[in-house]
Design goal:
about 130 residues, about 10% helix, about 45% strand
Length: about 130
């Protein structure tokens, strides 16, 4: 099984291109901090196709957190000097937002607000079906 999930930050804005066949492809890189050494990061080249590519290019920017799931694929080629090269990319199947809605403005939700007694609605135990 080849299933990779990473959570990190984009190192640059996604680059959207269109192939000769008219298919959209977005390339971007995600930096993932190591669990026990927060000063060290691993960098994953990522590639998304079709609607996912357009979505990522439209809604994600450098520095934003992203969660991606996909498969690792290798691509082999020869450079102009005839040397064999290999590149590994995470081909994205799913993506999702992470972190704050905006890095400048904190997001406030009901769960983060202090408890207010007026928000409490008592339940009559006689109405419960068990």
């Amino acid at each position: 099984m080849n299933n990779i999930v990473i959570h990190g930050r984009l190192t640059r804005d996604p680059e959207l291109r269109t192939t000769n066949n008219g298919k959209e492809v977005a390339n971007f890189c995600v930096a993932v901090n190591r669990r026990f050494d927060r000063d060290t990061a691993d960098y994953f080249d990522c590639q998304a196709w079709g609607k996912a590519a357009v979505f990522i290019q439209q809604y994600f920017r450098k520095g934003q957190e992203i969660l991606v799931r996909g498969s690792m694929q290798s691509r082999k080629w020869q450079d102009k000097d005839g040397n064999n090269r290999t590149n590994w990319e995470l081909v994205v199947d799913e993506q999702d937002f992470c972190g704050k809605k905006s890095e400048d403005t904190p997001v406030t939700t009901k769960a983060q607000e202090p408890f207010n007694q007026d928000d409490f609605i008592p339940i009559d135990d006689g109405d419960l079906p068990f």
